[in-house]
Every structure is written in C-alpha cells, then in structure tokens.
C-alpha cells in the first residue's frame, strides 16, 4: 500500500508525515511536493507534484492507493488546482482521497469556503472513495501574532466577541493520520475543531497572564485592521483576507462544539493556554 501526502513539506504536511511514521508506515509513504530537494529531510520516497502541471500529477500518483490531499495555498487558484489533482487521481486509479476542507464549508461566510466546497463537490462526483475533514482554524493563525502583540502592548483584530474553536496543527495532523489508516472512515465528512472556544479578548487576557504584561485586545474595523496589516508588510490580498476572516469569526463561523476532533485522536485537543505557553 502506498499513501501519498500532498504538500508534505508544508507546516501541516510535515506533521502528517511524522504522525504516520509513528504508526510505522515509513515504507508506505510518498511525499508529493513541488521541490523534491526540499523533501529530503522527510526520509521517505519523494515525487514531483505540481498542481499546475497535470502530467506531473498523473506521474506522481502512479501506484498511490490512498491520498492525503492537503489543500493548496494559492487562494483564488485552488478550485482549479484541486480539480486537476482529482482528475489525475481518477486516471491513476487512486482508491481513496482524504481531503482537508474548511469548518462548516457549506454554510460559512469565510471567503475560503467557496473553493473548498467546489472541491468537495468534485470529490463526490469523482467515483473515488473520499473522506472530508472540515478543519477549523489553526491556533497558530492567532498565536503567530503574540510577539508583535507583546512588542506593541496590544493584540489587534476584527473578530469582536466571536467564539473561536481552534486547535493546534498537530491535532489536525494526528486526525489525518488516524483517518487515512482506517477504512471505516470512508465516505464520511467530519467537522473538526478544538474542544474549547475563546474570544480574542480571552486570548489577550491569557497572554497578559502568562507574560505579566497588560496586553488588551483592541477590536478594529475591517478596513482599519486590513490597512495596518498592509502597513507592516503583508501583501494586500492577504491583509484583506485576514481582516475579512476575522469578520467571519465575529459571526461564530469558527465556532463548533461537537468535539469530533478529540474523539478521533483519542485525547483532548491542545489548549489555547498550552499553545500560548509554547510560543512564549
């Protein structure tokens, strides 16, 4: 059996490879990556895999039985790129695809939802066995801002009092490893999120508690937040995206309390307190 992992050198993909290695699947793994040179440290078989090159996709998927399909990172291009992968998987006789989608993709107001939903529909129409993991927010999406919050004595955003049920990337990586190694998960769609929710005010309070500094949460308008992100050097499309995703968070689009993620991995999801501690 061969298990292919797309984006295997990315932040999530690397963790997935490690989790599958822990389960002693080393000799069954294939890293599907744009640069095989960057994948050498993974110490598994590597193959070139370019979402924009259908020939490389078909070649990369030859002999792959199960595919961990981690969504691409080019916003606005993903529906097309993902369709390329699914078409190549059909031609290469891949038996099962496990895809990382977005929490509540069919109802979410996040701008990311449309491309994920389009991919889900392609999968369902493909005749390939599939499982959809609708991942909630990575806690790292917010904890990455801790250093600047400490430097500027404030945590900023536009999420208002929205409840966020995030989990660490490692939690989602472990879920992928659990799902892809158990045939009973075929045909299912899992809504995955952290066990406990928090607001950005709660997040700022916990940062203050652990640092001993007074770091309040300052809620900003979408435009103001986007402009600040642009001013500190983020590309405009990303700055606008981050601000708009916070607006969606304010509507509780990142909230979920079914605890399916912790059920899958057999342990509580990583707490926000622990994630903050790790950054500090």
What are the salient characteristics of this protein?
single chain, alpha/beta, Rossmann fold, UDP-galactose 4-epimerase, domain 1, 2 domains, two-stranded parallel sheet, 9 strands, globular, NAD(P)-bd_dom_sf, oxidoreductase, NAD(P)-bd_dom, NmrA-type_oxidoreductase, NAD(P)H dehydrogenase (quinone) activity
Describe the structure.
The chain is an alpha/beta fold. The chain folds into two domains: 3-135, NAD(P)-binding Rossmann-like Domain (Rossmann fold, 3-Layer(aba) Sandwich); 137-166 and 194-256 and 270-280, UDP-galactose 4-epimerase, domain 1 (Alpha-Beta Complex). It is built from twelve helices and nine strands. It has helices spanning 11-22, 54-60, 78-91, 113-124, 140-143, 146-152, 169-180, 200-211, 222-231, 236-250, 260-265, 272-279; strands at residues 3-6, 29-33, 45-48, 66-69, 96-102, 129-135, 155-157, 189-192, 217-219. The strands form two sheets. The protein has a seven-stranded parallel sheet with strand order 3-2-1-4-5-6-8, with helices on both faces. It has a two-stranded parallel ribbon with strand order 7-9. Helix 1 (11-22) crosses helix 7 (169-180) and helix 9 (222-231) runs antiparallel to helix 10. The longest helix has 15 residues, at 236-250. The radius of gyration is 19 Å and the shape is globular. The termini are far apart. The mean pLDDT is 96.
């Amino acid at each position: 059996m061969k298990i292919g992992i797309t984006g295997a050198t990315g932040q999530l993909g690397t963790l997935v490879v490690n989790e599958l290695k822990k389960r002693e699947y080393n000799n069954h793994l294939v890293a599907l990556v744009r640069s095989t040179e960057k994948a050498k440290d993974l110490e598994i078989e590597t193959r070139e895999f370019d979402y924009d090159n259908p020939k490389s996709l078909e070649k990369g998927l030859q002999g792959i039985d199960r595919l961990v399909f981690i969504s691409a990172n080019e916003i606005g291009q993903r529906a097309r790129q993902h369709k390329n992968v699914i078409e190549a998987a059909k031609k290469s006789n891949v038996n099962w695809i496990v895809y990382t989608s977005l929490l509540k993709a069919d109802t979410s107001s996040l701008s990311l939802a449309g491309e994920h939903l389009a991919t889900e529909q392609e999968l369902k129409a493909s005749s390939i066995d599939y499982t959809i993991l609708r991942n909630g927010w990575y806690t790292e999406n917010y904890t990455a801002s801790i250093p600047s919050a400490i430097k500027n004595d404030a945590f900023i955003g536009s999420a208002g009092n929205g409840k966020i049920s995030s989990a660490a990337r490692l939690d989602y990586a472990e879920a992928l490893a659990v799902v892809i190694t158990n045939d009973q998960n075929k045909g299912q769609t899992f809504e995955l999120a952290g066990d406990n929710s928090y607001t950005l005010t709660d997040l700022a309070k916990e940062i203050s508690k652990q640092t001993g500094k007074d770091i309040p949460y300052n809620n900003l308008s979408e435009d103001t937040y986007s402009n600040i992100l642009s001013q500190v050097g983020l590309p405009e499309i990303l700055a606008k995206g981050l601000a708009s995703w916070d607006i969606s968070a304010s509507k509780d689009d990142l909230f979920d309390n079914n605890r399916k993620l912790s059920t899958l991995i057999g342990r509580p999801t990583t707490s926000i307190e622990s994630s903050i501690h790790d950054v500090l």
